[in-house]
Structure formats: C-alpha cells, structure tokens
Amino acid sequence: MSVITTPDKLRVTPDAIEEAAKLLYIRALKILPDDIKQGFFRLDSTETDGLAKSVLATMIENIAVAERTENLLCQDTGIPIFNVQIGRDVEVDGWALKQAIARGTERATREHPLRSSVVHPITRVNAHTSCGAHVPVIHVDFVETPRTLRLEMIPKGSGSENGSFLQMLIPADGLSGVKRFVVDAAIKAGGKVCPPTILGVGVGGTSDLCMHLAKVAATRPLGSVCADAEGAKLEVELSEAVNSLGIGPQGLGGDSTAFAVHVEVAATHITMNPVAVNVQCHSARRASATFTPEGVVVGF
C-alpha cells in the first residue's frame, strides 16, 4: 500500500484503498483489539459467579485459539462497515474511493475466502461478495489533522445488530426516560446479543443520526470517554445499571453483562429527544489503516 506525497498534499490512490480494505476486513475478523482482550481480563477479575467465570474463560481461550491458528474469531463475517476520516490537504477521488472499498471487500471474501453474510433483502439471494445495494456501508467524515486519511473497518454481526432499538422520546420524559429506555433495551436483548457487550447509546439529533451515533458509541475503543461532560456522566451511571441486571456472559447469569456503556450525543429539536441503542457483541472486532506522508500504519 503506497501513498503519494508532495510538500503540501497527501494523495491516496484507489489501489492503496482497495488493498487496505481487503486486508482490514480479514484482519478485523481474525485479530481482536487489545482493549477488548484487556476488557475480558478485567471482567474475569471481578466476576463473582462461577458459571460466568467459566464462560469468560472459554471466550478468552477462543480468542487465543483463533489468533494462534489464524482462524476467524466468529463465523459471522457481518455487514462490512468502513469509516473514512479525511484530514486537511488530502487529495482523494471520492467515487474512486467508494469503488475501491467495494473491490477490496469482494476480494477479501473471494480470495481468503470468507463466508458472505450479505443477501438481497427481498429475494435473499447471496452474491457471495459481501457486497450489495448500499453495502459495504461507508461513512465519510472530515478531520483537522493535516495530510492524514484513516480507514476503519468494522464487521457488524447480525446477533448484535439485531439488538438495535430506537425511541423518539420527548423532553418531558427527562433523563430518567433515557435511562429507563437503555436498561429496558439491555433486558430485551438479554443473551441474544452474545454478552459481554459494548452497549452504544445515541442521544439527540434526528432518528437516523441518533442511531448512527449509537453505532459510533458501540464501536469506540474501551477506555474512551464521551467528549460531552453530561454524556460521560451518563456512561458511568448506565454501565453500573446494566451490569447490575445479572444477565451475564451469554445470558447465563453473572456480573459481566457489558464491558461498558458508551454514549454519544448530538443537538436536537426543542420538542423531541431521540434515544437509540446499538450493541457490539463480545467479539468486538475492528481494524484500521492510517495513511500519512510517512507511510501506512495498520492497527485498531
């Protein structure tokens, strides 16, 4: 993967994006980020239920075996999601970037090979490319960092994605209404979302922005904190509340229901307060490539 630099520009070629998309999809499915591994050991050290500790130990061993044998962490290769952050003074063809990500996704699926989990929503026909209408899902944002482009890949499995909830609250519902909705969502999801989870919560915005924020929150690294002070406070309160439910690993009981609850907020309309929940299962997979004038750094 190469980049082309000038004294004042970073140009990232479609070929470099395609190769990165392919490698990141495979890497995300095989190697769990360090923060999630540390999260497992932290939960194991505080878990008081014997069965829950046994389940956590099995999960930890599964991670080790998958990485040792270069196998997938989970058979669900998920819906491929790519988050692109483009810094200042970066030259990239947007349409070519979109096509390159799709080609990289298809190559990863066919050349590895990976199970394609993507089908047509009506006919259920599987093209075996992990691609389809509007898939891969691609989100583009712009950041201040000069001459930097970051490509993040997140394979979103259906078990956790099926645990998505949205409610259009009104201001009269207050903060207690937000908390009640999130806790109720965790109870409804139960063991179906393969806990321990990262529970992502979006508050504010519009219905679509709120759900997007919930997914951003769910896929944030463990240890990160909401940039909004009130959101950060809510993260602590909700994490304690969710882990007091007794759902536990795989829904079999225990203290370890969630690694954390993450919150993201957006300004909203004076007459509404949407709240969304999106779940990342215990196999909280992601991988990234950062393009700079110095080269390409692959990580999480």
TrEMBL record:
Which Pfam families does the UniProt record give?
Fumerase
What residue stretches are annotated with the Fe-S hydro-lyase tartrate dehydratase alpha-type catalytic domain?
19-289
- Top EC class of this enzyme: lyase
The answer to whether keyword tRNA-binding applies is no
Record keywords, A-Z: 4Fe-4S, Iron, Iron-sulfur, Lyase, Metal-binding
What EC identifiers does the entry list?
A: 4.2.1.2, 4.2.1.32
For this UniProt entry, the molecular function terms from Gene Ontology, in alphabetical order, are: 4 iron, 4 sulfur cluster binding; fumarate hydratase activity; L(+)-tartrate dehydratase activity; metal ion binding
Q: Which domain of life is it from?
A: Bacteria
May I ask which residue range the UniProt record assigns to the signal sequence? none
Family named by the database record:
Belongs to the class-I fumarase family.
The protein's name: Fumarate hydratase subunit alpha/L(+)-tartrate dehydratase alpha subunit
Provide the species name.
Roseococcus suduntuyensis
Lineage, highest ranks first: Bacteria, Pseudomonadati, Pseudomonadota, Alphaproteobacteria, Acetobacterales
